[in-house]
Amino acid sequence: CFRALCCKGPPPPRPEYDLVCIGLTGSGKTSLLSHLCSESPENIVSTTGFSIKAVPFQNAILNVKELGGTDNIRKYWSRYYQGSQGVIFVLDSASSEDDLETARNELHSALRHPQLCTLPFLILANHQDKPAARSIQEV
């Protein structure tokens, strides 16, 4: 009884969720995850393949698999979808019309993918601080 009343054991484990983070190159995926992990914004290098970061929150841990967004890597995105419990799609709201159209196509492809179509999606319109940024309605 004394031990139960006076000594606190280790905190209960936080639930972990596996997410996939996708978007075109330069959309801000790496910067977003670095910020969420409280890492220094200096020396951020665009992801060329994939990386995994554990993002700790008070009540949960998000294991985020960030996938590179170049043309030659996007065709392999679906190989990394298995086991995901949610999707973060990051787009550059200040990108060119061509890049925005490519991002739309990739988003629609992800929304239709059998392993992702039932999962929650967070669509982040990044770079809202840039003069050329589009509003949510325009994106």
TrEMBL record:
Ligand binding (GTP): G23, L24, T25, G26, S27, G28, K29, T30, G69, N126, H127, Q128, D129
Pfam families, per the entry: Arf
Coiled-coil positions: none
Molecular functions per Gene Ontology: GTP binding; GTPase activity; metal ion binding
Keyword set, alphabetical order: GTP-binding, Magnesium, Metal-binding, Nucleotide-binding
Binding, Mg(2+): T30, T47
Classification via SMART domains: ARF
InterPro entries per the UniProt record, alphabetical: ARL15 (IPR042292), P-loop_NTPase (IPR027417), Small_GTPase_ARF/SAR (IPR006689)
Family from the record: Belongs to the small GTPase superfamily. Arf family.
Protein name per UniProt: ADP-ribosylation factor-like protein 15
Source organism of this protein record: Eudyptula minor
Source lineage: Eukaryota, Metazoa, Chordata, Craniata, Vertebrata
